[in-house]
Amino acid sequence: xxxxxxxxxxxxxxxxxxxxxxxxxxxxxxxxxxxxxxxxxxxxxxxxxxxxxxxxxxxxxxxxxxxxxxxxxxxxxxxxxxxxxxxxxxxxxxxxxxxxxxxxxxxxxxxxxxxxxxxxxxxxxxxxxxxxxxxxxxxxxxxxxxxxxxxxxxxxxxxxxxxxxxxxxxxxxxxxxxxxxxxxxxxxxxxxxxxxxxxxxxxxxxxxxxxxxxxxxxxxxxxxxxxxxxxxxxxxxxxxxxxxxxxxxxxxxxxxxxxxxxxxxxxxxxxxxxxxxxxxxxxxxxxxxxxxxxx
Length: 295
Prior knowledge:
Blueprint: H1 3-15, H2 18-25, H3 29-43, E1 48-50, E2 55-57, H4 59-86, E3 91-97, H5 106-116, E4 120-126, H6 129-138, E5 143-147, E6 157-164, E7 166-171, H7 184-187, E8 192-195, H8 198-213, E9 220-224, H9 229-235, E10 241-244, E11 255-258, E12 267-273, H10 280-294
Parallel strand pairs: 3-4, 3-5, 8-9
Antiparallel strand pairs: 1-2, 5-12, 6-12, 7-10, 7-11
């Protein structure tokens, strides 16, 4: 059975008059009658009671009308969605991000994108940089927000969307919290709390080099795997750690953020995508994000 036949049936069922239905469909009445007969023969049921005075739906016809409406509605939605996918205004979009992206403009930009593209099904995934890069290469993620200078981005395109300086997070109860700026000698008094993830390991090497050049020792303290655990340890008075200066809104009570007298390399978040897997929707998202970052 063709979609055209379903539309013919719907018109007759709603008009309950072959002449009016034919006029609505812009066809002649005899071909319309033949099409209805063909539908009835294919289904093996009578859909209409026909008399010289009126046309009525049978019980089977009433049931089939609801089914036909649903089928036609689904097809109309599918057509609209497919056309929208063609110009990048609809479809599925899988975005991954590192947790620290939440301290950037990422949440607000995502909110605005979802508002401006209501027909896009956006799914967000909190994942580490290594996983994201592989997922973007493979196509299981369309765009990733990753820690730059951490992995090989060969084959991918990227742009830095956020950059922030670093500061020291120390227990608010410690005497050092009274100082305006902390020196390496100050920090050498406390154990350094760090994560076992790749970025923090890279940061540890940087700190060991800096302390070593100053003739000091970086005391490694608590090490953790789960996110946010380090801040909890710092608040508990177990040591200090390096944190991004724009993360003040995400840290718990009991922590004081202090500038360092040394300058560490900035923390950078990059947006990455696979040019070989570009679609109109992915392109629209990238351009949207670029536009907001450039504002």
